Amino acid sequence: MEDFTATQRKVIEWLALPKSKRKPKTQIQLGAAIGVSDETISIWKRDPKFKQAVWGLIEDMAGDDDADVIAEIVKNSKRPGRDGVNDRRLWLQWRGQLVEKQEDVTKDRDLVVRVIRVNAGNRFDGTGTTSGPDGDKA
After folding, report:
1. Phi then psi for 92, rounded to 5 degrees?
2. Predicted structure pTM score
3. Alpha carbon distance 58, 14 (integer Å)
4. What is d(CA 51, CA 4) in angstroms, rounded to the nearest whole number?
5. Omega into 24 within 30° of 0, i.e. cis?
6. What SS3 string covers the chain?
């Protein structure tokens, strides 16, 4: 966050908090408290680097709750119906800790796919021979 002024960092920290924990409560009140207009804060919020800084801080703060969420997953996995699993699954996906298991199923094993690559005007036809742009064998 060193790319931002002290005032911008205050806004980033404020935006990263849940609305219920923000003090002051509104963007207008925040602007008045730190000496910038509501419009200035709105402009900052549209800046992709500013948004990235807010999300980066949110992710850092969320890491403190990982152990609690995982404990709930374990607790709820033992309950019939497993209430809250979808929310916890989303949490793990967001944190990059859940990887979907995928299977590669090929129904027709005799199917051969020929890949033709075009590189610098030459075609590689998959047989080991190379032809130029006009089809001349190289």
Report:
1. -65, -35
2. 0.56
3. 10
4. 12
5. yes
6. CCCCCHHHHHHHHHHHCCHHHCCCCCHHHHHHHHCCCHHHHHHHHHCHHHHHHHHHHHHHHHHHHHHHHHHHHHHHHCCCCCCCHHHHHHHHHHCCCCCCCCCCCCCCCCCCCCCCEEECCEEECCCCCEECCCCCEC
Q: What tokens were used for 14?
A: 């404020």
Q: Cα 25 to chain center, whole Å?
A: 28
Q: Which residues contact 35 (CB under 8 A, 6 or more apart)?
A: 7
Maximum Cα interatomic distance, the chain, rounded to a whole number of Å = 74
Q: What is the mean pLDDT of residues 9-24?
A: 96
CA atoms lying within 13 Å on the CB side of residue 27: 13
What is the per-residue pLDDT across 74-127, written as a single tens digit (0 to 9) for each? 777 666 666 677 777 777 776 787 777 666 555 554 444 433 333 334 444 444
The residue type at 105: V
